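Quick one:
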Amino acid sequence: MMDIVVRTAKRAFDEIGEIGRFLIGVAGVWVILVTFIFAAFHIPSVSMQPSLQVGDRVLVSKFAYGYSRHSLPLGLGYVVPESWSGRIFGRLPEPGDVVVVRDPGQRINLIKRVIGHPGDRIEMRAGRLYINDEPVQREPQGVVRYRDSRGSLVEAAVYLETLPNGERHIIYERSDDARLDNVGPFVVPADNLFLMGDNRDASADSREARGLGYVHKDEVVGQAWTVLFTFASCREEDGLTCPGWRVWRGL
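Output:
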């Protein structure tokens, strides 16, 4: 009888060991995947509308700009010594790229669009974006009305903006006289980037020196590549925009 108990216990321990090794292997593969290849991020705010909507799950390329300590998942980059600064296989994002960055002040991930490179002079004048003292072209596309995440009714002008390198994207402007519509000029320091949200009057970005400010290249986590999926959570109302569910939509 004792032998049967011992054999049963041994089999149970062997099975537990196998399960443990399997789970460790899965965890190892996950760490490698989300550190070096792709990771998914959730969009919590309206700052990147209409390119990204609240609730979007975005697939982010970790290898697009090389690797820094902030490529590690779960905020582990802040545990790694700051002496491990720098990037491996690094390159600067192009203006117009949508990137995920670490905000060292809040220690959270943010997603914005790259507007300026080191040495660029960025300014907002009456809602218009100027880069190196030249106005960035924007073409009116109409008006959009929607409810924000708090349920408030919002009306915004829609523009097609074209950056100096030819990259084009849609932006929202609720007003040309909002809090961040007359700021600057900002001269982007070496090894830094200037980022802005597409929903210009609902984005805390590099225009706020006490907020995000300039973003060092080592704080870049990766490039937003595509929207994996979103299931619509807004209520359809006459005359208001309610984004439908999206699956595998490129940016």
